[in-house]
Structures are given as C-alpha cells and as structure tokens.
Amino acid sequence: MKTKFRVKKQQEFQAIIGRKKSAANATFVLYYKPKSENYSRFGVSVGKKNGNAVHRNKYKRQCRMLIQELIDFEKCKIDGILIIRPKFTRQSYLDNKKDLESLINKVTIIEHEQ
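Above: the chain sequence. Below: its structure as tokens.
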C-alpha cells in the first residue's frame, strides 16, 4: 500500500475512531468515516497482545498487503482504521483475506443504506 493511502498521524487515527462507526468480526475491527480526500486512506493497528514488535510489524505489513489487494482507493468511499485481533495470528493468509473481504463488504453495504 502506497504511503499516500495510509493514515499515519495520531490525530487522524483519533478522528476516525472518535466517530464510533465500526464493523467487526472475529479477526478484525474496522472503524470508518467518509473519506476526506479524493482517495481512501487506511491505517492498521496491532495491540501488544499479538506479540512482540517484530511480529506486530509483520502483521501490519500483511494487513497492508491485504488492503492493497482488496480495495480500489479511488472508488472506495471511506477512510478506515483496521485493528487486528489475536485470531489473526492463528489463521492462514487466505482465511484472513476472506475475513477482511467480508468485513469491507459489510461496511460498504452499511454506507449505501445510509
């Protein structure tokens, strides 16, 4: 995922999480808000329960790759923060991809209804 498509600053993370719009499954929690620029941006957060710094960075890299594969940043209508739950570490890459895809579809369905 290119750097321009990432949410990096703490204030941006807090602004998105502060809206309290979210969707979740056993593997991920996705906080979202309508996009603020011409393209969507996503941030990834991994808690300390998921391992040491080396493992957490690996999980973040994997999630960024999943997001890059699943989302068209120009057409997507949301900015999001993806929080990884401990189940992520026990599943395969393909299972995690399916879980994230279903979560993103759920969020876009919710956005279309409003």
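Helices lie at 10-18, 53-70, 93-113.
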